[in-house]
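Deliverable D5.2: sample structural annotation.
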Amino acid sequence: MSIPPAAFSGALRPQRLIGREPQLQQIRAQIIDPGLGDAFRCVLITADGGKGKTRLLQEIDRTIAASGEPVIVLPLIDLADPTLHSVAAFLQRVSGALKDALGTAGHEMLRPFDTASEQYEQAHDSQKMISLKQANDSLISAFKRAYMQIVAGRRVVWMLDTMEQLFATPPEIADLIRFDSAIHLTEIGPTTYHWLLSFITDRTPNTTMLLAGRPVPGRWVAGISNALLQSDVTSIPADDDEEEAAPLAQVLPLSVDDFTVDQVDDYLAALQQELAQFPTLADQADFVSGLQQSADDREALYLLTEGNPIRLALYVDLLMSNGVFPEPFRMPLAALKQELATNRKQMLSSVDDSLLDYIASQLGDNLSQVLDYLSIMRRGLDSERLERIWGGTREESDAALGQLRALSFIKHRPDGRYFLHDELYQIYQLEFERRDEPTCAARRDHERAIYAQLIALCNQELRAQNQAILAFHLRPDDQSDQVQAELRARRIRRRQLQAERLHYSLYLDPARAFYEVYFELTEQAFTTYDFELDSLLQSEISGFFFGGTAHLNCLQTGMQTDDWEQLRFAVLHERVSGWIKRLTKSSLALQARELVEAALRDHAALVRQHYAGQPFADMLALYDQPVGRLLSAVFAEEWRACGQFAAIYSGSAQAAISEIGRLSASFETLMRGQPLVDLPEAGLSLLAPEFRNRLLNIIAQCTMFVGYAHATLNRFTLARDHYRQAEYLLVHARPPLETLLAEVKNNLSRALGELSEVDDALMICDEGATINRHLGLDYNLAIAYNTKALIATLNQRPDIGLRSAQLALRLFRHRLDLRGIGLALIQAGEGARRSWWAEADLQAQDELDPTLRSVAPTEQALRDLHNAVTIFAGLKEPLRQMESHSALACLYRDRANYLHQDVEGADFKQALEHFGQARAVAVGDDPKAKKFPSQELAILADWAWLYKRAGAYAEASRITAEALLIAPPELQLSSERPLDIELARKNIGTLRELSKLAALGADITAAQAADQERGKAEFQQLLLASIEQRMLAMAYLQIVTPANNYLAQNRRKLYTLLSQQHLQSPEIRAQIQAHAIHVVRSYHLDAVQEKIGPLASLEMIADLFRLPTYLDYV
């Protein structure tokens, strides 16, 4: 059904702008006044909804275009679109508009910007904030250079609407940052808002910016004004007759007010003239003329609409409908004024009810239903979504939206979405509030069914995008611009769908959406370093809970006021946690901890300051109630936990462990239904049911943090136990936080791999990969492949390790992810090294001439590891720098050994150089601080083996002595004290390195013994010393795990030593047996044996010397 010709005559957009002539003239003067020169101009247009801001901007566009002036007026940009809150997307939109306006010349001038934009997208895909910040800076610089070329010969006019929805750092968080702070939040979240502030401060010449929006919420007006003050601008005086020297830049604060009574008269006169042009609308023209001529009718219209242009147009339509006036219009003017003074809300409600009935009757069933959908869709509808919920065809959806577009209360955005004007949206929602409860319940069920359909549509398209992204990685390596552009477009679209899904979920069930959907998506954003996604999510959350229509969202979703305010209170506090995580993930750990301290100190006061006023009074009152005090305490503990995770990242793992444990204990106290010590009156029962699941996830995350801290200290048994506990908690959450669960499984598999529980490790790693594949997280999937490579390589399965590393490398390269490429290159190099060495070691036993040996098979591994070193030198990640240098040093070491090089050999010198570089990173600026003692111990152990294999035994022994000074004495087998097995098993990484050092000592003394004359005292001493060190090496490894490849290698070496023919005499056997007993007693190995079972070294001696049992001589 089409709209009848006479319907909505007043709501058709008048060709002439009514009541805004003064503002229009003032704005035109800031664009085409000959006296402007090339000065910068900024016009701030502020007004509440429905007063004509958007129409004023559209009229500027029309009149300037008609004037023929040499001015470029960029198309109106509606910042209600959250994708434009990213500076990259925003500048790309502006760039496209400039190209359209300038044609070929514009394309040429903006070509460097296009290149920088491409590089920015590549850096974003790399998911490392250092390269992303550099690319963002380059993008902005390229745009500025191109733009300065463009404005050299012409003025450019920008028109930005809905400024109040432009997402930036929340005001209470921005103010946590002090002037002398090291924190610069713009570096980790480059937003359009912050870029605009910078652009305005620069006073860009030949530019007029028209910025329109509501004065509240947010601080956009104050922010822009401050930027203008910083640029030393001058305000344009309201009195046009006052003259002053033209400054370099000027600002025109311009408010768009409601119509006055006289402007209502102007509106009616203009409307009558336009209607009179159409014969079919003659009756309507006469009716409007009658309204205009009646002073009482004009004033009644003014009183009931308060001069709001949108309401005025709608009410005129209503009055024209059948000539039957709603009761307020039939009242004498004096009575109307008196009634409005005492009962305005009820009177307007009766008119609005009549208005909605009128709209429905004029539109007919189909269009009325479409308008009904728009009345609940704050994100708007396009034809695809309308088709999904309406059931019509795409063509019918296009036609219906096209008809509605002509009406003044319908807004259209360039992306194809249609919106209901806020004023009419508010009328619909307030009418809904007046219905009885059964009707409201039925209506909410209807709305929820629609949101569920749209969520299903988002999920369906998300699955398609995820599958396409993962399928991309199965293609042959294709780095063409077209293929990369396709992949980036799909990622951008996926981000938009994720934000849209959150939007609908918030209207379906705000609490579940926040505590489940939002946290799942933000976890994905943080684990993949996707801060563009996080900004979109923050924008949705901020708009829903704190935007201009937030009170209507509470009404529409049917939440109780107390529940709504508690949820908003939680959102405010959770936003702090998000920014702390952003800083931590951006390698700004110290700044993250600084933000924690600032939040603990000032957050409550800043919230009270920025949210003072009636819309937030109930929320602020929670600070003085038990539930608010409890939420504040819980979130303060979460901030501290996030700060401790930042401490782990910065190398302070040991200190963080106990503090996170204390925080977890607080959370667990609440989960058990007990109050916190400081809040005896506040228990978990005060909080929303959904918060319990959130608390469970926080505990799981804290537990994972502790596991991660232990892993960085090479305490893999403790890491495994904490990861398993975190996994258990997440599996029992309803629903589980899948992204975090996959991360925990990945970390758990790594710990199990370090413990040589290789089969379980590979299985759990695959489970995590499956979750990531299901979620479409190709970055996390690549990390899982890389972890699998590490596990396999570490446990002497280099072929599996190499294949997994190559898969990881493929995904990371497709993503242009520099950090990921570095990680995969390390594992690919390690896998190739170990695979080659296993074969080379066998060849070395057969080849007599070292000059015939070739290390050509290692050249690719060498290139990979050199590239990894270069990557992590740029990214400045200490752990990865040590890892890459050490891996490269070990490869050079093995090459030197294979080629029989001494300390003057080229490969030997390269190995020495990279071991030194690795240790320098471990030691850092303060050698006494010992931030990475476990890593330094591992570096020295491998370094000592370099010298041993080159025959430089004295140097090998010297470095071994250095390493033993770093290893904690309580973890070393010693004659002074029995080893605490439980403590030792919590530090198996250290024990593994101690076993390598003991094995090194065994090899050196065995080689030195071979150079001595048999039967001499020196020979006997060195032989027994070698056996002693081998027994210690094997004991360490047995404590680590009962069966592993390194234990088998040491067993073979001991067997080879003891089975030599010259050691088979009874006298020498007796000496060896006696010394073995001495070693057991001296190093308290008998106590070790009680904990771990028979010592493998003693069993071998007993078996080789044909003793009845090893116990007979121990």
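Annotation notes: The first helix runs from residue 21 to 32. Residues 23-255 form a domain with the Rossmann fold fold (CATH 3.40.50.300).
The annotation will be released with the project's public dataset once the embargo ends.
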